[in-house]
Automatic annotation (TrEMBL):
Family annotation (PANTHER family): KATANIN P80 SUBUNIT, KATANIN P80 WD40 REPEAT-CONTAINING SUBUNIT B1
Species of origin: Ciona savignyi (Pacific transparent sea squirt)
InterPro entries given in the database record: WD40/YVTN_repeat-like_dom_sf, WD40_PAC1, WD40_repeat_CS, WD40_repeat_dom_sf, WD40_rpt
PROSITE patterns, alphabetized: WD_REPEATS_1 (PS00678), WD_REPEATS_2 (PS50082), WD_REPEATS_REGION (PS50294)
Ranges that cross the membrane: none
A Pfam family it matches: WD40
GO biological process: microtubule depolymerization
WD repeats, residue ranges: 14-56, 57-98, 99-140, 141-182, 183-224
Record-given protein name: Uncharacterized protein
UniProt keyword terms in alphabetical order: Repeat, WD repeat
Lineage: superkingdom: Eukaryota
Entry GO CC: katanin complex
Length: 297
């Protein structure tokens, strides 16, 4: 899938919660399930294409600010405004872990690709890694000086990448518990991070309206997208890894990036601010929310 299909359509639109929706995530494995979090502290589960909630997980004590599936879609983790995390086994609809340590809202969570670990980024400027089996935080990574907007484990599971309102992307060695490198080429808050599926590359998207691609073997900037009309909210590499997709206000874009970043395609999607994107059955899919309404395109 080298370019974006010119045809877009709204798969569904529905009332997600009784109060405002605060976050949403798509299952990256199947592209057929979605989780939403709300001001009501609830996490609701949905099948893509159906407007009926299939499960409501036991509510947290404050609004849900981040939600994410593990790679197999067997578990979901939610981070709350109070700084607490909760992990559920979806087959049993049961809480398996409650984790506390952050002193402010959790903005992003991610599961390790094969280990029983979770990472989280918070408004308290800290990144934490949690051992699900031991029920506790095993590392706290300090270095950001503003809120952490997104965290992600590298595909090999050795690193955590984090991006922040402090305009930086930091890479952390998860076993040494220390920062490997800091990337600081953006001119505004960095909103998202994504690792290349096979190569030592990562991409970051920023409110400065650019997406930047880095070689993380040499820790150097290799490509930068042209200025877009709005800040980049989500970015992801194509399944082949040859292209990168960006999602911003009402817009999807596709770029090649080797040897330079070249625009390939643009699709206007009237969805407001994107919450998550994935590739399912060779199609790009994204979800967004406004007030208590959730949309899937």
């Amino acid at each position: 899938m080298s370019t974006l299909a010119k045809r877009t359509w709204k798969l569904q639109e529905f009332v997600g919660h009784g109060s405002a929706v605060t976050c949403a995530a798509l299952g990256q494995k199947s592209g057929r399930v979605m989780a939403t979090g709300g001001e009501d502290g609830k996490v609701n589960m949905w099948h893509i294409g159906s407007p009926n909630c299939i499960m409501t997980l036991s509510p947290l004590t404050s609004a849900v600010e981040a939600v994410h599936f593990n790679p197999s879609e067997e578990f979901v983790c939610a981070g709350s405004r109070s700084g607490a995390l909760r992990i559920w086994n979806l087959a049993e609809a049961k809480v398996i872990r409650q984790l506390s340590g952050h002193k402010a809202a959790v903005r992003s969570v991610d599961f390790h690709s094969y280990g029983e670990f979770v990472t989280s980024g918070s408004d308290d400027h800290k990144v934490r890694m949690w051992d699900i089996r031991r029920k506790g935080c095993i590392f706290t990574y300090k270095g950001h000086v503003d809120r952490v907007n997104a965290v992600q484990f590298s595909p090999d599971g050795r690193w955590i990448g984090s991006v922040s309102d402090d305009k930086t992307c930091k890479l952390w060695d998860i076993t040494a518990g220390k920062m490997l490198h800091e990337l600081k080429d953006h001119n505004s808050a960095v909103n998202c991070i994504t690792f290349h599926p096979r190569e030592l590359l990562l991409a970051t998207g920023s409110s400065d309206r650019t997406t930047r691609i880095y070689d993380v073997e040499q820790f150097k900037l290799v490509s930068c997208s042209p200025l877009e009309g709005n800040g980049i909210q989500k970015a992801m590499f194509s399944e082949s890894g040859e292209h990168i997709y960006t999602a911003s206000q009402d817009m999807f874009k596709s770029y090649s990036y080797d040897p330079i970043c070249q625009h390939l395609d643009t699709v206007i999607v009237k969805w407001g601010k994107p919450a998550d994107v994935t590739i399912s059955m060779e199609k790009l899919m994204g979800c967004s929310f406004f007030q208590n309404i959730v949309s899937v395109h």
